[in-house]
Design goal:
heterodimer; A: 215 residues; mainly alpha; 2 strands; 61% helix; B: 418 residues; 19 helices; 62% helix
Chain lengths: 215, 418
Amino acid sequence: MPLLSKKESKLILDPLADNNPITIQVLGICSALAITAELKASVVMAVSVLFVLGLGNVVISLMRNIIPSKIRIIVQLVVVATLVIVVDQTLKAFAYELSKTLSVFVGLIITNCIIMGRFEAFALGNGPWRSFLDGIGNALGYGVILIIVGFFRELLGSGTLFGIPVLGDPIAKTGLYAYGYENNGFMIIPPAALIVVGILIWIQRAKNPSLVEEA
Amino acid sequence: MKQKLHEIKERVKDKKWAPAFNAIHTFLYTPNEVTHKGGTHVKAVDDLKRTMNTVIVALIPCLLFGIFNAGYQHYSAIEGFPQDFSILEHFVTWRNFLVGLTTVLPLLIVSYGVGLAIEFVFAVIKGHEVEEGYLVTGMLVPLIVPVDTPLWMLAIAVAFGVVIGKEVFGGTGMNILNPALTIRAFLFFAYPTWMSGDKVWVHGAVDGVSKAGTADAISGETILGYLAQNKTAEMGYSLSDMFFGFIPGSVGETSTLLILLGGLYLVFTKIASWRIMLSATIGALAMGLLFNAVVDFGWIQSYSKFYSLMAFDFWKHLIVGGLAFGIVYMATDPVTSSQTNKGKWIYGFLVGFISVMIRVFNPGYPEGVFLAILLMNVFAPTIDHYVVQGNVKRRLKRAKQAKIYPATAPASVETQTA
């Protein structure tokens, strides 16, 4: 018997492509624009959201039958906030530089619409195992886009990947820079992320026209 | 030849790349199609192609002047400005032309090459006819960039501007932002060191940087650049230099005289809107006057970093930098500007007003025309919306108050206002 049934693997795979939280549902854009100038920050953000959403979905799902529906938003907020503080403190303890780069955006995971969205739409109505898979899937879908955007923005904007120069040294003029290449300053500012995400949305819908909304 | 092309066109009609062929065809000859067979039809000559060509004709003097000016600035920076300047001896010379040609022509070729290639690809993908819109954009682009802009940067910027600025919205006529200015803005934000400062406006000045300290290190600061650094005294350009355009700057933007002539030509051929040009001029003068007044009332000290730009005579803003060029050729873009007459007045006024404001207050880059026009491009539909709504309201009110003879049921009011 396979590890995941067909329905269960759909929970993970769907958000990766045809139901991607960023490119299809257009949620979580704020952090996608703000922290993707560096690949490292993108990866850390993706992992943080993976942790918060995966665990948060399970917790909410376990509590789903005892949460009074009138105060469910507050209960959800408490759960997210707890998990986010765990992530934030861990980063501060073990990766201080990185936590400074991510600054307020780790804290702002609380307001990431993807998380509250999954709690509301899925965890409140499904069992813990399925909620866990759904959380992992959505966080991965979010993370994949973050990493793609971060890859292009860091490569074109700074000429590095994970902080390692891959195109040569811009000051000593080695590698590509010897031929007059220059880093694209536009890629470092957040509007560039909007355009990169836009291009990803374009490519995805061009490949699969059934995703295009009716005008 | 003409007949043969018509015949080939019939044959390739169903091929995938037919739009590409048709583009070349329509570029060379008037196509032989008519609107429908039989019966009368009206065929006007002022189609999109004719409109675009008229703008290009208006731009050619600026391009030629830019070519000579590139050479003139280059040699003047090396040898010093000539003492008794005469146009024929110092400006319209072969060596100026050669320097200009070798720097400006590649910009033009890259701009058209990359831009048209993308237009062709999109035409084939979408299966529609190639649009002529890029003809003007491709001409504008080399005129609004510094002369030493590396060609690969220009190529990337053009690709970005055409795809993101125009094609994603559906091509010519659907774009929100002026594509030429999108290209300029991309260059400015992506490669700021090549787009501002005192090294980029004169050919050869960039190379001089590496040999700083030697006689080869030449610089060419723009007038706005001098002003932004409060160095009014060091600026050696006379008023006539500014008006005729013998100053450093982007390739085609320096000569206010030729821009003025081009503008008049566009107004008389009814291609560009005089309302926008006039109101933008008024807007720029108004903002300039406000700043002058601030200086006159002594509200700003002479050590302030805004002092020189604020004290700059308000009417001189029109003859330096890209303001005149922007007003005449960019703000009047029929696609991205306001469509209603009242809207054009508001739109134009704000273009001029904001241009001068950004000029004075922008610490990094003493030029704001392209930012002001792009900003107003975004607001143009909003302006139009309110103008149209205002009109609707006014006429409804009038219809309610109107006495209708002979007095009939209110239903006829509706038909009269419609």
